[in-house]
Design a protein that fits this description.
It contains 14 helices and no strands. The chain is mainly alpha-helical. Helix 2 runs antiparallel to helix 3, helix 2 packs parallel to helix 14 and helix 6 packs across helix 8. 43% of the residues are buried. The model has no long low-confidence stretch (mean pLDDT 97).
Length: 324
């Protein structure tokens, strides 16, 4: 497999891909990749998504769902991905500069105008589901919002087995992979922005251990794969868990801490290596149905820039620390 060809293919992609390629895989100086990152606001997917923002700062008129979206539409179309929380998740992953005037104004407008569908809670105060609150922490911390109150709540909601579950409010006492990865990403972003607290760092360690004990995809009780979906390569990230998403989280956590990878990730890394195509890319296995503003991949089975970027930086991070 020709790494140079894969790098060239990624370099010809969207600015949101290109700046992360330069930073994470090519180790280019900040002076080289920062102008590319800045262009996320004015070109490519970032600019396209920002063009759909409402005058009040939201997307599609709602926090979690588009304004006026009905249960019948959900049944017919699937969950929509056009409302504010999903747009913010994309913009964070694209790398929109949080210090830009456009980003600062966006944060203020959402603070003033966006309310959660659950019970009208102010957007940056979060709501009741751990998955949603984890994503809100991630976006808020990234864009400079004080989300410490949501973090304090998440710390108290750890399940007995170490992770989180959105069904806790309905009586669940077992963690889910999906909820746990959403919260972990939020806590990591909070720690990156603020240093975190002793309680948030301990909570993040607890959630990591929940996943590591299961080798990122297995049932603790039987050792079987907990869900086939976890092994599929998905883009973009929504609420759902995949092994690649978890590996990219552990890579980012390792980089932040300056620590070596945990050896219990080896099975998942081996699986990821095996999924690489002969041309050096990784394919899109599946994506969730539902409304989107635009597509970022050419289709199922086709090479995916986002999946390839994330997979390649995971594999190369692992190889640097854990040479065979």
């Amino acid at each position: 497999m020709d790494r140079n060809r894969t790098i060239a293919w990624l370099a010809d992609s969207d600015p949101s891909i290109r700046w992360q390629l330069m930073c994470d895989l090519l180790d280019e100086p900040e002076s080289e990749w920062m102008p590319v990152r800045a262009s996320v606001e004015t070109a490519g997917w970032g600019a396209q998504l920002l063009s759909h923002q409402d005058e009040d700062g939201q997307w599609a008129g709602g926090a979690f769902l588009p304004r006026g979206f009905t249960g019948k539409e959900w049944q017919e179309e699937g969950q929509p991905w056009t409302a504010t929380c999903w747009a913010l998740q994309h913009l964070r992953e694209f790398g929109l500069d949080p210090a830009s005037p456009r980003a600062r104004r966006m944060v203020e407008l959402i603070r003033d105008n966006s309310r959660w569908d659950h019970d009208g809670q102010a957007y940056w105060e979060g709501e009741v589901e751990e998955c949603i609150n984890g994503r809100t922490v991630a976006a808020g911390a990234y864009f400079g919002v004080d989300v410490s109150a949501i973090v304090d709540r998440l710390v108290t909601e750890i399940q007995p087995d170490g992770g989180w579950n959105c069904e806790r409010c309905n009586g669940s006492q077992r963690s889910s992979f999906d909820s746990t990865i959403n919260v972990l990403e939020g806590l990591l972003e909070f720690e990156r922005a603020s240093g975190g607290t002793a309680a948030s760092r301990a909570a993040r360690e607890s959630g990591e251990e929940y996943l590591l004990r299961r080798q990122l995809s297995r049932r603790l009780s039987t050792g079987d794969t907990a869900c086939d979906r976890f092994l599929r390569l998905q883009s973009p990230n929504r609420w759902s868990y995949t092994v690649l998403r978890a590996l990219d989280y552990f890579r980012a956590a390792s980089v932040l801490a300056g620590a070596a990878p945990d050896e219990r990730l080896s099975e998942a890394v081996t699986y990821l290596r095996e999924r690489q195509s002969a041309d050096g890319t990784w394919p899109l296995d599946w994506k969730e149905n539902g409304r989107v503003w635009f597509e970022m991949d050419k289709g199922i089975g086709q090479p995916s820039p986002w999946i390839t970027l994330r997979a390649l930086r995971v594999v190369e991070w692992w190889n640097r620390h854990m040479p065979e």
